[in-house]
UniProtKB/TrEMBL annotation:
This is Fe2OG dioxygenase domain-containing protein. 2-oxoglutarate binds at N129, Y131, H141, H214, R226, T230, R232. Belongs to the alkB family. PROSITE patterns: FE2OG_OXY. It comes from Aristolochia fimbriata (White veined hardy Dutchman's pipe vine). SUPFAM superfamilies: Clavaminate synthase-like (SSF51197). Residues 122-235 form the Fe2OG dioxygenase domain. It comes from the Eukaryota. One of its GO terms (biological process) is DNA alkylation repair. It holds the Pfam family 2OG-FeII_Oxy_2. InterPro entries: AlkB-like, AlkB-like_sf, ALKBH2, Oxoglu/Fe-dep_dioxygenase_dom. GO terms for molecular function: broad specificity oxidative DNA demethylase activity; cytosine C-5 DNA demethylase activity; ferrous iron binding. Substrate binds at F68, G69, R70, D144.
Amino acid sequence: MSSTSGRLGFTEVPNQTAVENSKRRTFDLGNGSEVVYMPRFLAFEESWTLFDYLDKQIPWTRPSIRVFGRSCIQPRDTCYVASEGLPELRYSGYQPHAYSWDDYPPLKDILAAVHKALPGSHFNSLLLNRYKNGSDYVAWHADDEKLYGLEPEIASVSFGCEREFLLRKKPSKTISVQSIGNRVSKGSSDQHSFILKHGSLLVMRGYTQRDWLHSVPKRVKADSVRINLTFRHVPI
Ligand SMILES: O=C(O)CCC(=O)C(=O)O
Ligand SMILES: [Fe+2]
């Protein structure tokens, strides 16, 4: 984009919105894992319209899942949308019904925007989560189901209440802690935290699911609904 010179010889600064929209930060987590964060992926008002639609129209359920051999109610609402003919998703002993994209046209618009932002991506399934307030959460996990292959790219779009998204390195199977004299250096880059904003996009790619865990912890102060969409590719 070219910039014009003002009357007094100052260079004009592009307007603030354009600068914000172009903000895209890439975080190299090391060893082939990468996270990309775009705080203003979708416009603010449009994001509220989508939030209202999703909150009201999606057939949310709160299923029973199995965690460490015990049955419990999943601590958030969920729904699953997938293209026809994909192998079925199963996680924590639960197999969600796959709804069709055609039943929820705004999801196709969001998918198109994600594909545009991430050239070369081909998402064909979507796991939706609804956190009614700060007592809903997702525990530490990796989306490393075989179904997704070895290096899944996962694109996560958030609406509504801002929540913290944490990444923590999986314990290494080899001894990677370096001893320097008496001091044990573990490095501080084994954890990352993002506040996922209304209308934001966060992408995990490379070996992030193999080498890292992520979570959205409980937050007493979060007092309103958050909706999160994670787009995934299931190879056929
Ligand atoms: O709500 C989020 O930001 C993350 C959801 C998530 O990790 C998942 O659905 O696997
Ligand atoms: Fe996840």
